[in-house]
Design goal:
Blueprint: E1 2-4, E2 7-10, E3 13-14, H1 15-22, E4 26-30, H2 31-44, E5 50-55, H3 62-70, E6 74-77, H4 80-88, E7 96-98, H5 105-114, E8 117-120, H6 123-133, E9 139-144, E10 166-167, H7 171-181, E11 185-190, H8 199-213, E12 221-223, H9 241-259, E13 264-267, H10 271-274, E14 278-289, E15 294-298, H11 307-311, E16 317-319, E17 327-333, E18 341-349, E19 356-359, E20 380-385, E21 388-393, H12 398-402
Parallel strand pairs: 4-20, 5-6, 5-13, 6-7, 7-8, 8-9, 9-10, 9-11, 11-12, 12-13, 15-17
Antiparallel strand pairs: 1-2, 2-3, 4-14, 14-15, 14-19, 16-19, 17-18, 20-21
Length: about 400
């Protein structure tokens, strides 16, 4: 979104026009930004045989998935439902990596039936997989490198107390299980969380992965996860993708030479690809001045964007209806019957009731984590593509909310 002639626009379309056509609250995604982020990653890792597996949990709208497939991405799925959605969006099973956590083995069986790549992150599942499939169906292994890195602790996944992955210190148990059942391990995977800005952290993970990989002769790929940090506010330090791509590709090529053959380098970006492309638009219902705070109350809440309340995440907020208004201090809140703050003490151009407010960088973990709390309806989604705003998900209705409920005599 950019300001042109006192109008905020996406691909030259005024966002106020989009909001008038489709209503608010509304998620809007800029297809050009998604494509450009994907191109940036491909360019940064051009020195390796890279496979980009988009982390579908960030945003699973089918139209977004189809756009990514068209431009050469694969899928990283963490549930069988994400696998099914990806297949429905046109991805081949061979393009999908399924890495579940704490699921029943029946879900893993279903993934095998669908023919996708399976990545196991606990010894129990690895043992059951060996008992069931032996050497007939390959699998990957997710390792926990015991590295604490990234942003909020809730999204750090590679530390010693994390539920994710098999501890690097349990490697003897992994090897024992692999040999016992003749399991063909075709990939190793590590992912330490989100918002990692330091290239050295990724290289440290790579060293651990390279050290383990030498014990597995049938590898096809090494998966370095993601966690690439994006800018949520001015001055944020972000992952230097080109530095990371250059140095990791170089280290990977040196390992492949020692390993004796070339492997594929996999990464699993989600937030990096869709975060900046998405904006949540809402209407200012109320401007409420108290002796200490002036609140802007929106027709949205943490039922639509939970990250500020769940992770203390910062999202830049703009009054798109009054770009030349004088700056004033506001706390922007939602309509949920709990403390529901999008941003406290923000300087915005003067807000009037009825103004359209934009919450930026909402493409990742916005709609995908939305809920019906307070029996509120989830918003519509729009994609701006080739200079045209297209509806890609209808706004929910009360019938959607009641669907599935069964009335009984009481």
């Amino acid at each position: 979104m950019e300001l042109v002639d006192y109008n905020y626009v996406i691909q030259k379309i005024p966002v106020e026009d989009i909001c008038r056509e489709f209503g608010t609250p509304l998620y809007v995604y800029d297809a050009d930004k998604i494509i450009n982020q994907l191109k940036t990653l491909k360019g940064a890792f051009s020195g390796a045989d890279v496979r980009i597996k988009y982390a579908a949990k960030a945003l699973t709208n089918v139209s977004v998935l189809k756009l990514l497939r068209k431009h050469g991405a694969g899928i990283d799925a963490v549930s069988i439902e994400e696998v099914q959605i990806a297949i429905g969006a046109g991805f081949k099973p061979s393009e999908i990596m399924y890495t579940p956590n704490c699921v029943g083995f029946d879900e893993i069986r279903e993934a095998v039936k669908l023919g996708v790549s399976v990545n196991l992150d606990n010894l129990s599942s690895l043992m059951k997989f060996g008992e069931t499939y032996g050497s007939d169906y390959p699998c990957g292994v997710r390792l926990n490198p015991h590295i604490l890195a990234g942003g909020n602790y809730k999204i750090s996944t590679g530390h010693s107390n994390s539920k994710f992955g098999i501890s690097i210190y349990q490697l003897p148990r992994i090897m024992e299980t692999v040999y016992k059942y003749g399991i063909k391990v075709n990939g190793l995977h590590v992912h330490t969380g989100s918002d990692i800005s330091e290239t050295d952290i990724f290289l440290k993970m790579a060293d651990i992965l390279f050290g383990v990989a030498r014990d597995f002769p049938d590898l096809r790929f090494l998966d370095f996860g993601s966690g690439f940090k994006v800018a949520y506010k001015e001055g944020d330090i972000t992952t230097n993708i080109y530095d990371l791509g250059l140095r990791l590709s170089k280290a990977f090529a040196e390992f492949c030479e020692q390993y004796g053959r070339k492997l594929e380098l996999w990464i699993e970006p989600g937030k990096y690809i869709v975060s900046e492309a998405g904006i949540l638009f809402a209407r200012a219902n109320v401007v409420k001045a108290t002796p200490s705070v002036t609140f802007v109350g929106l027709n949205s809440g943490f039922n639509h964007l939970v990250r500020p309340m769940m992770y203390d995440a910062y999202h830049h907020i703009i009054n798109v209806s009054n770009p030349t208004g004088s700056k004033r201090l506001y706390t922007v809140v939602g309509y949920i019957c709990e403390t529901d703050t999008f941003g406290a003490d923000r300087k915005l151009n003067e807000v009037r009731e009825g103004d359209t407010i934009a919450i930026l960088n909402a493409g990742a973990y916005g709609y995908s984590m939305a809920s019906n709390y307070n029996s509120r309806l989830r918003p519509a989604e729009v994609m701006v593509i080739n200079g045209e705003a297209k509806l890609i998900r209808k706004r929910e209705t009360i019938d959607d909310l009641l669907r599935g409920q069964i009335e009984i005599d009481v």
